[in-house]
Design brief:
Elements: H1 3-6, E1 9-17, E2 23-32, E3 37-42, H2 48-55, E4 63-68, E5 71-72, H3 81-85, E6 88-91, H4 103-113, H5 122-131, H6 147-159, E7 165-169, H7 177-192, E8 196-200, H8 204-208, E9 214-219, E10 222-224
Parallel strand pairs: 3-8, 3-9, 6-7, 7-8
Antiparallel strand pairs: 1-2, 1-4, 4-5, 9-10
The structure holds adenosine-5'-triphosphate.
GO cellular component, one term: plasma membrane
Keywords: ATP-binding, Cell cycle, Cell division, Cell membrane, Membrane, Nucleotide-binding, Transport
Family: Belongs to the ABC transporter superfamily.
Length: about 240
């Protein structure tokens, strides 16, 4: 099998500009391989959120090619987008929980969308809420939860359906270091089950907790490759890398 065939995501010379501004991402080329754990890092404003928006298909690039799950997503008909999104779990920087639904119902959403029967929901949803330390807040609406609690509901919702790829934008930005480590362990557990994980963060303490991770670094809209993440076959991160 060639590298191209086994890739889960492939960006080829992608550029992004908002409106008529200069490009915020330039010449972005990379390949993500199934089952790997990637960190996307870089200074504030470097373009991490913009790159993730391209990845979870919320934003079209201004130029370049993108393939996901073996399909050209630039030329793909728009009505195929929802099917693609169901194969991804996304933790948004601003959480995007559904205001009028409880924590339980927010977490249950991806399972309901994929047709899981009501009687089969409660077990996995409650287990997941317990894992993120929110079993006692299952009935709470997002507005009554703290920022860190909302973030944990958002993470539980993103991982519950075991997506093929998990894309998380600063998923530990609002929690204490102990909870941050727990959440990264949750991502690792999902990764061991086969999910490709992409986490944007500037927290190097966190990156060091996942020694087998691969690092992509954005610097003013262009990518560099401190751990060989962008080469094939990808190399294991040398320990103590400060990208
Ligand atoms: N909707 C938008 N319209 C215009 N410019 C934007 C928009 N979103 C982001 N930008 C610009 O794109 C650049 C990259 O922003 P982005 O949010 O992708 O960076 P980031 O690395 O995620 O930053 P942070 O770590 O602070 O979240 C910045 O200069 C930002 O001002």
């Amino acid at each position: 099998m060639s590298a191209k065939e086994s890739a889960i995501v492939q960006f080829d010379n992608v550029g992004l500009r908002y409106g008529t501004e200069r490009e915020v991402l330039s010449n972005i080329s990379f390949t993500l391989f199934p089952g790997r754990f990637y960190f996307l890092t870089g200074a504030s404003g470097a373009g991490k959120t913009s790159l993730l928006k391209l990845l979870y298909l919320a934003q079209r690039p201004s130029r370049g090619g993108m393939r996901m799950f073996g399909t050209d997503v630039i030329t793909m008909p728009r009505d195929e987008l929802p099917g693609f999104r169901r194969r991804m779990g996304v933790v948004f920087q601003d959480f995007r929980l559904v205001d009028h639904l409880s924590a339980f119902d927010n977490v249950a959403l991806p399972l309901r969308v994929s047709g899981v029967r009501e009687r089969d929901l409660a077990g996995p949803v409650n287990d997941m809420l317990d894992w993120v330390g929110l079993g006692h807040r299952a009935d709470a609406r997002p507005a009554t939860l703290s920022g860190g609690e909302q973030q944990r509901v958002a993470i539980a919702r993103a991982v519950i359906a075991r997506p093929e790829i998990l894309v998380a934008d600063e998923p530990t930005g609002n929690v204490d270091p102990e909870m941050a480590l727990k959440l990264i362990r949750l991502f690792e557990a999902l990764n061991r089950l086969g999910t490709t994980v992409v986490v944007a963060t500037h927290d190097y303490q966190l990156i060091r907790k996942v020694p087998e991770s691969l690092i992509m670094r954005l610097d003013k809209g262009t990518l560099s490759d401190p751990t060989g993440a962008l080469r094939y076959p990808p190399k294991r991160a040398p320990s103590g890398v400060e990208a």
